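Lecture 7 notes: from sequence to structure.

We start with a single chain of 314 residues. Read the sequence below before looking at the structure.
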Amino acid sequence: MKTSWRSASLVASAAVVLALTTACGQDGGATGSQNVGATAAPGDVGNIGAGAGDGLGTGAGGAQASASPPESAGKLSVSTNAEIGELVTDGAGRTLYRFDADTAKPPKTTCENDCATAWPPVAADDALAGEGIDKDLLGEVTRPDGTKQLTIGGWPAYRYAKDTAAGDVKGQGVGGKWYALAADGKKAEAQEAAGLSTREDPKLGEIVVDKNGMTVYRFMKDEAWPKPVSACTGACLEKWPVVAPVEPDDTEGVVKEDLMTFTRPDGAEQQTVDCWPIYTFAGDKKAGDTNGQGVGGTWYAVAPDGKPVGAPKK
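Now the structure, written as C-alpha cells:
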C-alpha cells in the first residue's frame, strides 16, 4: 500500500508539471504565431531589426531564424515614379529601398530575421550598373550571416515583400523609416517642376509648358513692343487663363532674354516670353494636350524663344 501511495503521488506531480509546461508552451506558441508567420505586420511599421527587446526572437542568446540568402540584383537602372520621382530598380523592375535604422558611413545593416523576410536584402555579387547608375557608388556590406548585401551610396539595399509587380512602390514611407533609393543613395523624392520648361511634342516640336506640364500659348492679337499688351480680356480669360509670374531662375529651356512680367488693366500680373503675353487653354484637360493649337487662327503654342509655333508667316 505504501508503494502504491508513492506511485500515485509521483503520477499526480508529473501531471501538474505537464499541465504547467503545456500551458506555457501554448502561451509562447500564441505569441510566436503573432510575430512570425504569413503576415509581415512587424515589418510594416518599420521598427523591427536586430537586437534584444524587439519581440521577434532576435534578442541576444535567442536562436536566429533561418533566412533565405539575398536575391540577385541584376542590372540596376533608374525609373521614374510620378509621385516619388527617380528611383532605383533591379533587373526585374522591382523598387529598391533603404532603412533609416541602417547607416551608410560605415555601411551597416540592422534588418535581420523577420525584418529581412518583410524586406529581403539585395545581393551584391551580380549587381551591374545600368543607365543612370554610377558604378562607383555601388558597394557591399557583410551581413551577420556572412552574405554580401548590395549598397548604393553606402546604404544597404532591400526590396519589399508586398511589392508584387515591377514598378510597385508600396514600401515607400512605411513606418516613417523605409524609402525608395535614389541613384545617389539618398531617399527618392519628386522634384518640383520648374515654373516654365519645355517638352518635345511629337507634332509641334519643342514647346513651352507650365509647372503642371500644360501647354503655353500666344495670342496673335497681343503686342510685345514697345511694351506687352494683352488683347484677351473679359470672357476671353475664361478660356485662356493667364500664366502667373515666374522667376527667371525657375525656368528650364526657355530663353531668358526678355523673360518678364507686366501688369494687366485689371491689376493682375502676367508672364511673358520674349515680351509676348502667355496663356494656358481651358480646353486642355491634361499635361501634353495641345487642343488650343491654331484655335481661331490666332492661338499658337510657344517656342522656347517666344515665337508662335505653326503660325502663318506674315
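The radius of gyration is 32 Å. Keep this in mind for problem set 3.
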